[in-house]
Every structure is written in structure tokens, then in C-alpha cells.
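Hey team,

Filing this mostly as a record. A colleague (T.K.) asked me to run one chain through the structure pipeline before their review meeting, and I want the input and output archived in the tracker in case anyone asks later how it was produced. No errors, nothing strange. Just documentation.

Input sequence:
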Amino acid sequence: MTIKDVRPGQPASQMVIEDGADRFEHLAESADGRPGADDAELVDDAVEACLAVEADGRTLVLPFRMRHWPVPYLAV
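Output structure:
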């Protein structure tokens, strides 16, 4: 899984998750934001990379999944 971060006001960055991509995706789609016990290292890495925030035992993953490419990308 590749996560590209191009938010305004900070340098662009990219994070590649090889091990644990399915856990990261599950966490990103979690309704209650509660990570599993085996997700602590993954959550710590995401928080350190500013891709997630933690508060009161819950985690909010900041990137969103692109469902489709923007129209200008596909325009010929």
C-alpha cells in the first residue's frame, strides 16, 4: 500500500506499507477507531508520519482512499 501525502502547508511525503497493509486499511475503515493490540507499532508509525492522530484510545487515520482519478487526470 502506498500513501501519498500532499496536504498544503507541508512538504509532500510518501509512505509505503508492505507488512500490515491490511491492518492499516482495516483501521482506516474502522467505525469506532479502536486499534487492535497487534496494531500498536503500525499506529505509532502512522502518527509519527502525521498520517493518523490518537486520542482517548482511539485512532483517526487521516488519508482517504481515492475512489476515482480526478477528471483533469483523465482528460485528453
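Quick notes for T.K.: The two ends are 28 Å apart (CA to CA). The chain has a mean pLDDT of 77.
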